[in-house]
Design a protein that fits this description.
Length: 383
């Protein structure tokens, strides 16, 4: 089936008892067993291990990513943590892209290291650096592209080639483009992580995550980490996300078209010094972004003349845009990464990764683009 059909129908069948077209919210901690000998015969026992509503979402995201199976989590971070718990032990080494979601950086820096895992943050867009970073005890390479917040593009197929040769896992965070625009398994990745909080839900309604794999054995390992650590998604979140995903393709198309228009407009604005959007021919990773994904996404960053103070004034002056810390939803959001999403990343690391103090990040939503541009224009006129 095509993506638009799958995003509506995959994983979901009318309720066999009532015919309800939407998967019911199975709000139950436990599932009654027919007999001791038939334990788990219907697939469920205690909700930390699984739930029919959550399962429907897992089947849907596995289908959309083209993976073998998926597990769903209470947050995107819980998804990343489950992968790390499942695959790592003390003495192992991991390579993590130097520009990643701030929480991923923080977990690796403060917890993996605490448990005796060696961590290297490496520029994943530099293939020689990735190759050179692999050691005999390396277990996985973790990438994110476009990366949060600079949108740096990593060549997923080339990194996968390096990891395959070295016999280590390539884990990638596909939150920014979703399977509608980017298909990591087709580019050789082993594990795909999502914060479903963002585009998959798309409505600023839920916090959730998912891990998709193309190997059933790996799925079992990760599901075991999830049940052991209690990282599971709730049935209510799964239900809301199931509804959100139905319009993923249309939201991604509209939001990325809006982002392209806004980025182009910003590039021509006299008070804007630099604009970053993978869809702009001026963007360093533009050609690679075109080659490995079907769309450029809806995240944009820019820097205004007048530095940090002017940037803050701009963010305090918008009316239609919301000054907030989420991304991916239909509502347009403006963020200051240095004080908000990436505050956990130390200043030296931020400077190295290109996350400057004056960086303004936009999550472009689905409003009329003229209204979004008019609001940015009035805010820019105030600095
Ligand atoms: C938000 C985000 C996460 C973390 O997800 P939560 O649902 O907030 O825990 C991970 N990766 C990326 C790229 C994100 O944007």
């Amino acid at each position: 089936m095509g993506f638009r059909t799958d995003q509506i129908h995959a994983g979901v069948t009318p309720d066999p008892v009532t015919g309800a077209i939407l998967t019911p919210i199975h709000q139950s901690t436990t599932f009654v067993q027919d007999s001791v000998d038939e334990y788990m015969s219907k697939g469920y026992s205690y909700a930390r291990g699984g739930n029919p509503t959550v399962r429907a979402f897992e089947k849907k995201i596995a289908t959309l990513e083209g993976g073998a199976d998926a597990t769903a989590y209470g947050s995107g971070m819980a998804a990343t943590v489950a992968v790390m718990l499942a695959l790592l032990e003390a003495g192992d080494h991991v390579v993590i892209a130097d520009v990643v979601y701030g929480g991923t950086y923080r977990f690796a820096d403060q917890f993996l290291r605490k448990f005796g895992v060696e961590v290297d943050f490496v520029d994943a867009s530099d293939l020689d650096a990735v190759r050179a970073s692999i050691r005999p005890n390396t277990r996985l390479v973790f990438t994110e592209t476009p990366a949060n917040p600079t949108l740096k593009i990593t060549d997923l197929a080339a990194v996968s080639e390096i990891t395959r040769e070295a016999g280590v896992y390539h884990v990638t965070d596909n939150t920014f483009l979703t399977p509608y625009f980017q298909r990591p398994f087709e580019l050789g990745c082993d594990i795909v992580v999502h914060s479903t909080t963002k585009y998959l839900d798309g409505h600023n309604a839920t916090l959730g995550g998912a891990v998709v794999v193309n190997d059933p054995e790996l799925h079992e390992k990760i599901a075991f980490a999830r049940i052991s650590a209690g990282l599971v998604m709730s049935p209510m979140v799964a239900w809301l996300t199931l509804q959100g995903v139905k319009t993923l393709s249309e939201r991604m198309e509209r939001q990325s078209a809006n982002a392209m228009e806004i980025a182009t407009w910003l590039e021509g604005h006299p008070k804007v010094e630099r604009v970053g959007y993978p869809g702009l021919p001026s963007f360093p990773g533009h050609e690679l972004a075109r080659k490995q994904a079907r769309g450029f996404g809806a995240m944009v960053w820019f820097e205004v003349t007048g530095g940090v103070e002017a940037g803050k004034k701009l963010m305090d002056s918008v009316r239609l845009w919301s000054l907030a810390e989420n991304l991916g939803a239909v509502e347009s959001i403006i963020t200051h990464p240095v004080t908000m999403t990436h505050a956990a990343v130390p200043p030296e690391e931020r400077a190295r990764a290109g996350i400057t103090d004056g960086l303004v990040r936009l999550s472009v939503g689905m409003e009329d683009v003229e209204d979004l541009i008019a609001d940015l224009d009035q805010a820019l006129s105030q600095i």
